[in-house]
Amino acid sequence: MERVGAIREVVAKSAGSPYRGRPIFKQRCASCHILFHSGGKIRPDLTDDLETMLSSIVDPGIREGYEGFSVKTNDDRFLTGFLTDRGANTISLRGFDGSVLSLPRAQIAEMTPLGRSLMPEGLLDDLSDGELRDLFAYLRISQPLLKD
Are 124 and 8 in contact (CB under 8 A)? Predict the structure, then answer.
């Protein structure tokens, strides 16, 4: 967890600008994550504290409810997404576009866990210290920004 400690030090060294951090969030995070009701619906809302965010970003693991699955149906369709419900007769699969599809278990030929996080590794590696401070300043604000 050396990288987590190094980023923590950079972020603590001086304040960043949430206004400069917002475009970094939009570029790197918003396709999957929601912040202030804006962004993708693939992964969880980003409302965690700094330590949880740092460990989740630097060393992404699979959070409960966000393990990806590959599903092959009896009619040879291949679907991927997150299981949102496992009923006795149906499953619900949230696709990477945020849509939810309910499938009768009788239509499922195979269901395989992907076994890895969809969070890209090295997401912060090419950001400068200033960009890191700006991104985390944006992620840690308590209300949405009104203007650019």
Answer: no
* Residue 74, domain extent: 68-113
Q: How many CB atoms lie within 10 A of CB 88?
A: 5
7 and 79 assigned to the same domain: no
Residue 62 and residue 117 in contact, taking contact as beta carbons nearer than 8 Å: yes
How far is Cα 16 from Cα 140, in angstroms, rounded to an integer? 10
Give 12's contacts (C-beta < 8 A, 6+ positions apart). Answer: none
pLDDT tens for each residue of 75-100: 999 998 888 888 899 999 887 777 88
Taken as a whole, the chain contains a residue count of 148
- Claim: this prediction has a pTM higher than 0.70: no
For 147, half-sphere exposure in the C-beta direction (CA atoms, 13 angstrom radius) is 0
Contact 92, 100 (CB under 8 A): yes
Q: 122 to each of 29, 43, 89, 114, 126, how far by Cα in Å?
A: 13, 17, 40, 20, 8
Q: Are both 56 and 72 inside the same structural domain? A: no
